[in-house]
Specification:
This protein is α/β, with parallel strands linked by helices. It is built from 20 helices and 17 strands. β6, α10 and β7 form a beta-alpha-beta unit. It binds NADP nicotinamide-adenine-dinucleotide phosphate (NAP).
């Protein structure tokens, strides 16, 4: 058993960690102490003589050595910024985040000899670093505990109670669809196993459970990913809270409802107007959007020229955002020119009807409608619309080679299948949900792409 305490300096990781270790008769280690012992210098001296980068490198080395440790570990406040650290700490471990507000932290650490990390006044440094680090802490945590105004003993009580996990089996309320055998599988999970899932309707076709469960096994995480298929997002949220879900991937038709349900929304999701990722930390929900990354990454390196997005729904909004971020001049075309105009107006770009495609001659085309999906032989573009100089990215990912991509390839265009969007949005989403960075090659391998 490995229990890892993370959180800002002064949140009680060492004090509470020692109490929990004593109660569970486990050894206790503090990564700051291990770094000092390894190099024979105090942390202020390491910072003064070698700088923060050297300290982070020593810390990374110490943490890599703890992947298979059996006991309780208290970590330095900045460890979670490096996904390699989170990967090592999560292997076979339960990660406990201790949280406190900036005022409480300042009161606890104002006389500490630890070096400043910025040129800011101490109170301002705490506020600004907390703002940057919070998403990293919450992504890396299995259990989040608020410490303000509580004694270390009381915090340790909550931690030990929460380590035991859920009460009773996982049972989804009536109205939820599960694939055959999934209810039985959920009923066999250990109460302490962390739960994640795909929220949507329909959602049973999703490849996310296959991907996530394989990645959890690969990274030694005691976690499982299932289906939350229900037409009412409120019902999904209630079930998720009751079951202590740690993260949800969100798909149609719930991406806007997910955004509205969050306590905190990342900037990209706010601008796109949709969230495909929810991370739960205690009662707090953070929403983010990784779909746009799924469009952006495969297009990185293109010359920023004219781009057309076909469609005006949720995926199209992410595509517009990604293309603008790449410096493209974007036009949205849809069968309903009014909807295209409304989407384009949000981002200050051009719009029109599908028939306008011919006059635009774009360098990049992103197709974001369901046309051509699963046996649908149609394509919104004819061979004569396409030119070999174009890059055509079809977001539809079943089948991998859509009618549009087949036509584009025959015309000599560069083609990008929708599976690439799925792969890159998943890499980013896994990072948001777990704090672990997975590369695209690993995701492709798991998906058999
Ligand atoms: P959405 O919000 O429902 O939007 C669909 C858009 O397609 C709307 O603009 C809709 O127009 C248009 N449309 C539907 N049928 C059409 C047709 N026959 N002709 C022309 N336009 C049509 O859906 P979405 O979430 O944006 O998803 C769009 C596509 O992206 C889906 O096929 C999905 O598979 C794909 N996608 C892929 C990934 C990935 O990881 N690769 C991720 C997300 C989505 P109206 O408003 O007029 O109906």
């Amino acid at each position: 058993m490995k229990i890892v305490f993370i959180g800002y300096r002064g949140t009680g990781k060492t004090t509470v960690g020692r109490i929990v270790a004593r109660r569970l008769s486990l050894p206790f280690l503090d990564t700051d102490v291990l770094v000092e012992e390894m190099i024979g210098m105090s942390i202020p001296t390491i910072f003064a003589t070698a700088g923060e980068a050297a300290f982070r490198s020593l810390e990374r080395e110490v943490i890599a050595g703890l992947a298979d440790f059996n006991g309780v570990v208290a970590t330095g406040g900045g460890v979670v910024l490096d996904p390699a650290n989170v990967q090592a700490l999560r292997r076979g471990g339960t990660v406990v985040l201790l949280e406190a507000g900036p005022g409480e932290i300042l009161a606890r650490i104002k006389d500490s000899d630890r070096p400043a990390l910025t040129g800011l006044q101490q109170a301002e440094e705490i506020r600004s670093l907390l703002k940057v680090r919070r998403p990293f802490y919450r992504a890396a945590a299995d259990i989040c505990v608020l410490t303000a105004g509580r004694s270390p003993e009381a915090i340790a009580d909550e931690v030990t109670a929460r380590l035991a996990g859920r009460h009773g089996n996982i049972v989804l309320p009536a109205g939820f669809s599960l694939p055959p055998g999934e209810a039985e599988r959920l009923a066999t999970l250990d109460p302490a196993t962390g739960l994640y899932g795909i929220a949507g309707h329909p959602a049973l076709h999703s490849r996310s459970p296959l991907l996530y469960n394989a990645l959890f096994a690969r990274y030694g995480m005691d976690a499982s990913y299932t289906f939350f298929d229900h037409p009412d997002f409120g019902a999904i949220l209630d079930a998720a809270r009751t079951l202590g879900v740690r993260g949800l991937s969100v798909t149609i038709p719930h991406k806007e409802a997910a955004l509205a349900a969050a306590d905190e929304v990342e900037e990209h999701a706010k601008t796109i107007g949709a969230a495909n990722t929810l991370v739960f930390c205690g009662d707090h929900i953070r929403a983010s959007n990784t779909d746009w990354i799924g469009v952006r990454r495969p297009l990185e390196g293109i010359s920023a020229g004219r781009a057309v997005v076909l469609g005006a729904g949720g995926a199209a909004a992410g595509a517009v955002y990604a293309l603008l971020d790449l410096g493209c001049e974007v036009t949205v075309l849809a069968r309903d020119a009014g909807k295209a105009k409304a989407l384009a107006a949000r981002f200050g770009c051009g719009s029109g009807a599908l028939r306008d495609f011919g006059r635009l001659r774009p360098e990049v085309v992103v197709h974001a409608t369901p046309v051509g999906m699963a046996g649908d032989p149609r394509s919104l573009l004819a061979p004569e619309d396409l030119d070999p100089s174009m890059t055509v990215f079809d977001l539809v990912y079943t089948p991998k080679e859509t009618p549009l991509l087949r036509t584009a390839a025959a015309r000599g265009c560069r083609t990008i299948p929708g599976t690439e969007m799925f792969v890159y949005q998943a890499c980013e989403q896994f990072l948001h949900m777990t704090g672990i960075r997975v590369d695209a090659a690993t995701v492709r391998e798991v998906l058999g792409e």
